Amino acid sequence: MIARLREVRLSRLALVAVATLSGLATAVVITTALGRTSAQSAATEALRHPPVVVRVAATHPAPAPAPAADPSPAPAPVDTSAATDTGAQSSAPPATDASSSDSADTSAPTTTGATTTTPTTPTAPQHKVGHVFEIALSTTSFEAAFGQQSVARYLNTKLRPRGTFLGGYETLARAELPDYLALISGQAPNDDTLTDCLTYAEFPDKVKPSADGLVPGPGCVYPNTITTLADQVTSAGKTWKAYIGDLDRNCVHPNSDALDDAPLPGAGPDYATRHNPFIYFHSLLDLGGCDNGDGSLEKLEGDLRSSSKTPTFSFLAPGACEDAAVAICPDGQPAGLAGEDAFLRKWVPAILKSAAYKKDGVLIVTFALTGATAPGGPVPTGALVLSRYAKVGKIVSATYNPYSVLRSVEDLLGYKLLAHATSARSFVSAVLPEASASAAK
Description:
Low-confidence stretches: 1-124
Shape: globular
CATH architecture of the largest domain: 3-Layer(aba) Sandwich
Largest sheet: 8 strands, mixed
Number of strands: 8
Distance between the termini: 100 Å
Mean pLDDT: 79
CATH topology of the largest domain: Alkaline Phosphatase, subunit A
C-alpha cells in the first residue's frame, strides 16, 4: 500500500500520516480478530459436556429370561375312585434344570436409566407332609377287622371315625411278608416270600433286576442293587425308623439260609422277622442303614417328644402274638386282633398327640392277610388313613394295595417311584387332597 502511495507524489509528512493510519487500522483488525477468537473459545468451552464413557455390551444376544417359578401347587395324581386301575403318572416335581440360566451374560450391564433385574432360579417345591407313620397289622378277613362283630373296638369306634377308610384296600397275596416288603420297596411276591420265607434265603449272586427294578426268581434277601423307601429317606438327608415289637437291639436277623423265625440273640420270643421287612435288603444291611434305623418299639415314645427328633418315616409292627390268627399269648396278654387293637390303643394316641403329627403328619394303618390255609390272590382287608389333611369319616371304595401305599408315600414326600409303585394307583388326591399340593403356601 505504501509502495503504491509512493507512486502518488505526496509530501513526506503526508506519507508519514498515511503510514501511521494504516498501522493503526491493521492493529485494530488483529485485535478484533483475537478478541473474537477468545470469546468464541470461552463460549464453546462453556457449552461443552463432560466426556461420556461408553461400555460396549457383548455382541451375542442375551438369552431369554428364565420363567418365574409357578407358585401354584403341582397337580396330584388323579384318583377317580374307580374300581379298576389304569395307572397314574408320577406326581413328583420335575427336577430344576440349573442349566437354563447358566448361559446368561455375566458382564456388568450398561446403565441406561432402566432398572435391571436378575433372573432368580426357581426353588425346589416344598411338600406339605413331613412325617409319615405306617402301622402294619394283619387280619384273617375284612369282616374280622372292620365288620360289626370285630373285636377291634378301638380301631372301629375311635380311629375309623377320625380318618378316611380305604374300603377297597386289598392284599397282594395270602401271606404277610409279601405285603410288608412291597410297602417299602414295590417288589412283587415270589415263591419264597409267599410262604413268609421259611428260610432266610439269599437271591442268587448273579441275579440282575429287570428294567423296571424287579428282582426275578426265588429268594428272600434282596441284593444291594434294590433301593427301598428307607434308602430314599436317607438320600434326602432325613431319618427313618422301624419300631418292631419284641426287638431288643437293632437289626436282628438270621444268618443266610438259616431258619427265618427261629429265636435270635437280641430279640425276645415274640419277635417276628416277617414283621420286619427292612432286614431283607442288602442296601440296608451292608451300609449300616439297618443298624441305625431298625430297632425296638419302646424307643418310639422318646422319639415322639419333639418334631425334630421324630423320623420322617416311621414303621411300626407288633410282635408275633398280635398276629390275627393267634388265639392265646403265653404271657396272658390279648392275642390276635384283640392284641392288635390293644397295640393301637397304646401307640396311636402317642402319635396323634405328637408335635410332628400335628404339624405335618400322616398315619396309615394297613392289614395283611394271615392264617390262610391255601395260597391265592389278593384279599380285601381294608385300611385307614388319618391326618390333618384327610377327610374325616370318608369312605373311599377304589381298589388299593401295598404298592399304592408306597406310591402315595413317595408322592407325599417327593421321591422317585420304585418298582411296582410306578404303575400303582395313588390315594393322595382322593384321601389327602389338601396335602397333594407340592408347594406349601
